[in-house]
């Protein structure tokens, strides 16, 4: 199957002049030129044009595109990279759609949209930290899970998390031991809370990694001033860490 230059231009949403320019620049030659002087393009040429148009949409100039195509020895590998980039773009757009829908839900309910709920995602603030500790997959799966929730589900989940933090603070202020039944009950509740998040070791039943994750979170609560503030003060964060680490050592 072949298309003339006019047919290809119409189907690609560009002009014949653009295709001729790509030819002069060495990016895309016609598959053949007929005796009548008409330019014809086959499937291989269209696949190459697909790559060119995609890179143009990403903002690459023609010299950069020419360099990329010159380095490609495997057309299928280039197209697979194209697919991966398109899928990432699709995921980004889907997250934006969900965010806008959640904003509409809030406005229609007469509530003020919360930017932390609407835009930040489950753990976007800690993306690099999550990936460095537990890997890209944990971040991606948990982040997709969060963005897949409705506004009401997000608010309910955040309220449950705030209730858990408040219970930890109350226990710390009461001066109970991290090894006490009250503290260990809170640690068990904390681990159950973690197990609700897809992608995490606690959700997937990986005991060894779950222990490592719980202990690592305990350390992070103390080492990171953001969490010290969350648990009232440094002493509160230390109490949470010690209770979680004791729970991980003895009950997980």
TrEMBL record:
Is Coiled coil given among the entry's keywords? yes
TM region positions? none
Keyword Repressor (UniProt): yes
A GO MF term: DNA binding
Query: What PROSITE patterns does this protein's entry cite?
Result: HTH_MERR_2 (PS50937)
Q: Which domain of life is it from?
A: Bacteria
Question: Which keywords has UniProt assigned to this entry?
Answer: Coiled coil, DNA-binding, Repressor, Transcription, Transcription regulation
SUPFAM superfamilies in UniProt: Antibiotic binding domain of TipA-like multidrug resistance regulators, Putative DNA-binding domain
- Identify one Pfam family in the record: TipAS
Query: What InterPro entries does the database record attribute to this sequence?
Result: DNA-bd_dom_put_sf (IPR009061), MerR-type_HTH_dom (IPR000551), MerR_fam (IPR047057), TipA-like_antibiotic-bd (IPR036244), TipAS_dom (IPR012925)
Question: What CDD domains does the record point to?
Answer: HTH_TipAL-Mta
> What positions belong to coiled-coil segments?
69-110
Q: Which residues form the HTH merR-type domain?
A: 1-71
PANTHER family in UniProt: MERR-FAMILY TRANSCRIPTIONAL REGULATOR, REDOX-CYCLING DRUG-SENSING TRANSCRIPTIONAL ACTIVATOR SOXR
Q: What is this protein called?
A: MerR family transcriptional regulator
Question: What's the source species' lineage?
Answer: Bacteria, Bacillati, Actinomycetota, Actinomycetes, Streptosporangiales
